[in-house]
C-alpha cells in the first residue's frame, strides 16, 4: 500500500467522502494491506454504533415469477427452465409466525415482479402481517412499482423497501438489462420510496459483467449522496440458464473491500453479509461482518420452494430448516465475537 492509498483511507475515515476519481484510485489500488486497514476501520465504526450485535431479517421468497428479463438473474422471464412458484397469503403468514417464534422481528417479502401481487393482494398481506406482529418491521423487495402502489403499500404498513439500484452508471445499467427497463425509472422508484417515508435500501452486485472501477466509483458516490438506510451488496454469481452463464463470479476480496468502504462512507448504514457472499466462500458471511457488515438475512421460505428461488447457482441454505438457519448463523456470529439479537434492527443514527 502506498502513501496515497493511506491518505485516501484516512480521508475516508474522517470525512466519509472522496471525489469520484479517488474512489476509482482506491478501487484500483486495492491490495491485502489496504483491505486489512479498511476492515479494521470499518469494524471500529460498526462496533461504535452497533456494539457486538448483528441484526437478522427473516427472508420470505414469495414468488419466483417475474415479468422482467434482467440478463444476470436466474428467474428472468426468458428462462424457460426455471421452476416457478408463488406462495399463498396463508403460506406467507405461516412463515412469518414461525419466524416470530424463532426471534425474527423483521420480515422481508422478496419476489420477482409477479403480476399476481397487485396492490390489493400485497396490501392485504402487509396489513395482516402488521396486525399479527405489531412489534415487527415489514420490508418489501418486490421490484419496480408505481408511486401510487408504493404509497398504498406504505399506508398498509410497510416500513422498508429494498430495491438495488444495480449500477449507478446508465451505460452499464443498459448492458445488464433489457431495453424496456431504464436506469431513470429505477432511480425514480428509489426517490419515490424515500419521499413516501420508507427506510430505503439500494445496492449492487460486485463483479457484474461490464463493471469497472469507474462504474463502481459511481456506485460509491451514489451511496455517499443518497445515504440509503440499507445497502445490499454481494458478489455476482453466474446462473447456468442466463446469458451471463460463462461470466466469472465476483470475488470475495473485492466484496469485502467494498463492504468496508461503504461502512466508512455511511457509518450507520444497515449492511448485510449476503447469502451470495456465503455462497462464494464457506465463511463469507463471517468475513463480511468482520469487514463492516452488521446484518444477516437467513431464509424463512418453506422448504419445498427454497431451491426454486434460484437467482444464481449453488445458493446455500436451500436444504436447511428456518430454525437450523438461525441457529447456524447464531453460532457463526458467536464464533467471531458477535451475537444475533431479537430486535427490529432499525438504523441507529449516531
Ligand atoms: N448473482 C448475484 N446476485 C444476483 N441478483 C440477481 N441475480 C444475481 C446473480 N446472478 C441480485 C440482484 C437483485 C437481487 C434480488 O439479487 O442484485 O437485485
Ligand atoms: Fe442457513 Fe447456515 S445460515 S444453514
What CATH first level would be assigned?
Answer: Alpha Beta
How would you name the CATH homologous superfamily? Aldolase class I
Alpha plus pi helix count? 13
Number of strands: 9
Topology as H/E string?
Answer: HHHEEHEHEHEHHEHEHHHEHE
Report the average pLDDT across residues.
Answer: 98
The general outline is globular
Bound molecules: 5'-deoxyadenosine, FE2/S2 (inorganic) cluster
| N-to-C CA distance | 31 Å
Strand content: 5-15%
CATH topology: TIM Barrel
CATH A-level architecture: Alpha-Beta Barrel
Strand order of the largest sheet: 2-3-4-5-6-7
The major sheet is characterized as: 6 strands, parallel
Q: Which structural class is indicated by helix and strand composition?
A: alpha/beta
Structure write-up:
By secondary structure, the protein is an alpha/beta fold. It contains 13 helices and 9 strands. The strands form 2 sheets. It has a 6-stranded parallel beta sheet with strand order 2-3-4-5-6-7. Strands 8-1-9 form a 3-stranded parallel beta sheet, with helices on one face. Helix 2 crosses helix 9, helix 4 runs parallel beside helix 5 and helix 5 packs parallel to helix 6. It is globular and about 60 Å long. Bound molecules: 5'-deoxyadenosine and FE2/S2 (inorganic) cluster. 5'-deoxyadenosine binds next to loops.
Amino acid at each position: 500500500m502506498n502513501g496515497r492509498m493511506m491518505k485516501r483511507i484516512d480521508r475516508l475515515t474522517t470525512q466519509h467522502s472522496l471525489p469520484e476519481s479517488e474512489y476509482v484510485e482506491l478501487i484500483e489500488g486495492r491490495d491485502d494491506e489496504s483491505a486489512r486497514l479498511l476492515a479494521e476501520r470499518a469494524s471500529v465504526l460498526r462496533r461504535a454504533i452497533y456494539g457486538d450485535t448483528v441484526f437478522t431479517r427473516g427472508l420470505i421468497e414469495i414468488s419466483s415469477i417475474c415479468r422482467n428479463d434482467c440478463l444476470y438473474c436466474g428467474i428472468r422471464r426468458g428462462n424457460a427452465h426455471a421452476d416457478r412458484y408463488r406462495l399463498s397469503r396463508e403460506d406467507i403468514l405461516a412463515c412469518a409466525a414461525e419466524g416470530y417464534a424463532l426471534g425474527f422481528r423483521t420480515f422481508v417479502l422478496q419476489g420477482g415482479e409477479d403480476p399476481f401481487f397487485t396492490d390489493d393482494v400485497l396490501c392485504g398481506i402487509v396489513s395482516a402481517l402488521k396486525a399479527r406482529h405489531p412489534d415487527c418491521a415489514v420490508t418489501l423487495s418486490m421490484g419496480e412499482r408505481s408511486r401510487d402502489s408504493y404509497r398504498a403499500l406504505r399506508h398498509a404498513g410497510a416500513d422498508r423497501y429494498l430495491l438495488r439500484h444495480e449500477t449507478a452508471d446508465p451505460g452499464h445499467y443498459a448492458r445488464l438489462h433489457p431495453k424496456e427497463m431504464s436506469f431513470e425509472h429505477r432511480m425514480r422508484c428509489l426517490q419515490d420510496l424515500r419521499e413516501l417515508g420508507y427506510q430505503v435500501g439500494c445496492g449492487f452486485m460486485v463483479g457484474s459483467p461490464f463493471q469497472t472501477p469507474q462504474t463502481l466509483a459511481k456506485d460509491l458516490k451514489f451511496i455517499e449522496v443518497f445515504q440509503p438506510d440499507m445497502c445490499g451488496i454481494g458478489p455476482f454469481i453466474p446462473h447456468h440458464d442466463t446469458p451471463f452463464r460463462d461470466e466469472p463470479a465476483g470475488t470475495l476480496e473485492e466484496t469485502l473491500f467494498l463492504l468496508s468502504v461503504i461502512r466508512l462512507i455511511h457509518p450507520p448504514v444497515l449492511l448485510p453479509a449476503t447469502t451470495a457472499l456465503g455462497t462464494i466462500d464457506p465463511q463469507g458471511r463471517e468475513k463480511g461482518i468482520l469487514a463492516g457488515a452488521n446484518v444477516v438475512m437467513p431464509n424463512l421460505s418453506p422448504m419445498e420452494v427454497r431451491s426454486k428461488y434460484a437467482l444464481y447457482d449453488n445458493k446455500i441454505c436451500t436444504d436447511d430448516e428456518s430454525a437450523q438457519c438461525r441457529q447456524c448463523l447464531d453460532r457463526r456470529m458467536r464464533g467471531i465475537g458477535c451475537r444475533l439479537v431479537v430486535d427490529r434492527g432499525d438504523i441507529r443514527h449516531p
